[in-house]
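We store amino acids, C-alpha cells; thus:
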Amino acid sequence: MIEARHLRVLRAVAATGSFSAAARELGCTQPAVSQQMKALESSAGTPLLIRTGREMRLTQAGEVLVRHASGILAGLTAAEEEIAAIAGLRAGRVRLVSFPSGSSTLVPTALAALRAAHPGTRVSLVDAEPPRSVEMLREGECDVALAFRYGTAGAEWDDLVVRPLLTDRLIGLVPEGHRLAGAESVAIGDLTDEPWIAGCPRCRRQLVEVCEEAGFTPRIDFATDDYPAVIGLVGAGLGVAVLPELALESVRPKGVRTIAVNPPVAREIVALTLPDLSQVPAVAATLDHLSLAAER
C-alpha cells in the first residue's frame, strides 16, 4: 500500500535531487528518507529512483508517481481539514499565500476578524506573487491564494474557485519637482521620454503593454518587487512609476506626487482555492473575511 508520508518524501527527493537534501527539507535523517523510499518502491513493485553520480534521478514509474502525488496530497489535506473542522471551527488550519501589498492591507484585517470569530482556527501566511502563488495552490502547498491579474487572462483560473475581492487602480508617481507634479491626471503618452521604475514581473509586463499601446516602449532604469523601494527611487528623482493603489495604502510616500492615470488601468484582486478545499469550513471562513476586508 502506498502511504501519503512516502509520497511526500518522494516529492522532496525529486525536488532536491538527493536523500540528504530531502532529509534537510523534511527535518529528518537521511537513513529515514532512504528507508521510506525502499518501502515505497516495495509497495510500487518497481524502482522509482536511480542514482546518477551524486544525484537521484526518477525512473519513468517515479515520474508518474510524482506527477500524481500533488493531487493525492491536496485531496488528503482537504480531508484532514474537513475532519478537523467538524466541531464547528473549534479546530483547523489554513495556509494562506499572498502578494506583499495584499499581505499588508487586506490580510491583517481579514485575519484579525477571523481570529475573533473562530479563535481555534490557525492561519499561516507566506508571501508570493502570481503566478507562483497559484502554482503553490495547485501543488497543495497552500489552501488559499490571494492573487491578481490584469484584464482578461483567459482560462488560467478555470480549474479553481475564484472569489473576486476588489478592483485596484494603478496610480502614477512622479518626483515632487517633476513638471507634472501639479497635474490631477496624466496620460501615459505624456511620460514617453521618462526613465521608469518598474515593479514585480507581472506588473512590469503590464507596464510595457500599456506603454506600447500608447506608442512607445518605456525605458526601465530600475526594477524591484519592493514597493517602498519604488517610491524611494521616484522620490529621489530617478524616474517615474505606476503602482497599484493598494500598494500605496500601507506606505507613506515621501518626496513624490500621486497622479491619476489616463486611460484608467486596473488589476483584479481575487482569492483562489481548489474546489475540494472550498468546502472546508475554515477555508470558507477565510474567504468570507477576505471579502469583508475588501469591502471596507
Q: What stands out?
A: The longest helix spans residues 60-84.
